Amino acid sequence: MRQSVSYSLNLLTLSLLFSQCVYECHCGLVGDAEAMAPDISSSVNPQPFLPLLAPSPLTPFTNDSIPTLSGLCTLNFSVVGDLMSKTATDCWAFFAPVLANVVCCPQLEATLTTLIGHSSKYSRMLSLDTTHAKHCLSDVEKILESQGANKTIQKICSIQPENLTEASCPVMEVDTFESIVDSSKLLAACQKVDPVNECCQEVCQNAILDASRKLADIGIAANLEGVHAVPQQSSRIDDCKNIVLRWLASNLDPSSANKVLRGLSNCKVNKVCPLVFPNMTRVVKECANMITSQASCCKAMDSYVSQLQEQSFITNLQALNCAASLGVKLQKANVSNNVYQLCHINLKDFSLQVGSQEYGCLLPSLPTDATFDKTSGVSFICDLNDNIAAPWPSSFSEPPSTCNRTTKIPAVPKATSAQSGLYKNLMLPSFFSSLVVLKLLL
User: Fold this and answer.
1) What number of other Cβ atoms are within 10 A of residue 194's Cβ?
2) In sequence order, what are the beta bridge partners of 371?
3) Residues 306-355: pLDDT tens digits?
4) Pairing state between β 314-315 and 362-363
5) Are 354 and 15 in contact (CB under 8 A)?
6) With pLDDT > 90 as the criterion, what percentage of the chain qualifies?
7) Domain ranges of the chain
8) Secondary-structure percent of the chain, ordered helix, strand, coil, rounded to 5
9) Residue-level pLDDT at 367
10) Which one, of 293, 383, 395, 400, lies nearest residue 343 by Cα?
11) Euclidean distance between CA atoms 111 and 232, whole angstroms
């Protein structure tokens, strides 16, 4: 598929630079990079690319002014200074909307969790009241914006002051928490999280769920006495999970806490398809039952998938889920033919496209943080030239699970080594206030 997308400030120019880099980069090995996906054999040898984005010389990457804070938030921001900087880069102004569900928002949530968790060492509280939460969230947003983050990060990530409170969880005091939960067992299960195996074995996740249920059960006893209205138990357990995560973060150093929280969020991220599927009436009309015109069917499919490509970058495993979900929807609408094969739909076609050429960008299933360098700018890793065919699901099947080793899953992109190269900067048109360069990875 060849779709043109103008969602982001620099995607249109990225493809031009991609071609330039392929022919003009002189690459030298700089080291190995850890495999980015679960242990799934690959029949292809994709070559990932690292888009590097630097600010315009006319626009500094960060705001030189010191943000004016409310003075009403008692959280200790200096404790998570490094995490705040990481979050600002992951939520960089122009790319926050398209990296939101995979990188930006998970990092923002991890930072807020760690911030409240470590502050509980002094406050002995694992939540904020609504008023305090409003001031603190506003201050966090101002600090991140001063370091280059998107101005609307709170909206992008759907973070509200209520997310910093205890919500419906009946336990918020550290002492009460530790009297109810087996703290040593929880810490032993979650002190270190294997980013791949945890998603299947769920050692830490099960420990968190067990602790959350114990906390939620306290609320049931209180409600039986008529103190509060009874919310749904599942909702209460979810709210208590946030309390458990804050306690866990308070018992780890900020860097370790961030690794654990991001590892857990990756499991959640890769289980779903984050895309919104628009109306598929035209595809059904052209592709259902006996296809009268392959050209018309594929034209309809191309048009439909182009709408998906305007949404966000997704991981390779999310792409598998999206392909399965869309396939099931089409099958239920009487599209029985494998239109993915018929119309040459690849996994990368479900992610945001780069320019008018065939360069879909799939993020690795264990997405790395974006990085900022004063010379190179902001960078993140994605695969621009993977051509793995989208799998057409068997009738109404569930999305393939990477935890089931008997499941035949197509090869997914991996980055096994990295190379850096000489590169040329190209100014975008005046209404694009950024530079785009590329580094070639092998």
Assistant:
1) 12
2) 379
3) 999 999 999 999 999 999 999 999 999 999 999 999 999 999 999 988 65
4) parallel
5) yes
6) 58
7) 35-60+273-417, 83-269
8) 45, 10, 45
9) 86
10) 293
11) 28
Looking at this protein, which amino acid is placed at residue 80?
Answer: V
- pTM (two decimals): 0.78
122-125, Cβ contacts within 8 angstroms, sequence gap of 24 or more: 122/76, 123/74, 124/173, 124/174, 124/175, 125/172, 125/173, 125/174
Look up residue 137 and give its two tokens: 């969230």
Question: In whole angstroms, what separates CA 48 from the centre of its chain?
Answer: 18
**What's the pLDDT score for residue 345?**
95
Which secondary-structure segment (H or E) carries 334? Answer: none
pLDDT band at 399 (very low <50, low <70, confident <90, very high): low
Query: Residue 397: its pLDDT value, please?
Result: 59
The rounded mean pLDDT for the chain is: 77
Residue closest to 246 by CA, chosen among 153, 174, 179, 158: 174
- Identity (one letter) of the amino acid at 129? D
* Residue-wise pLDDT tens digits, 250-284: 999 999 999 999 999 999 999 999 999 999 999 99
Q: Find out whether 403 and 390 touch, Cβ atoms under 8 Å.
A: no
**Burial class of 142 by CB neighbour count within 10 A (0 to 12, 13 to 18, 19+):** middle
Residue 424's CB is within 10 A of a number of other CB atoms, namely 11
Gap between the Cα atoms of 56 and 435, Å rounded? 6
Q: Cβ of 401: how many Cβ atoms within 10 Å?
A: 16
Sign of the CA dihedral with 375 first, then 376, 379, and 381 last: negative
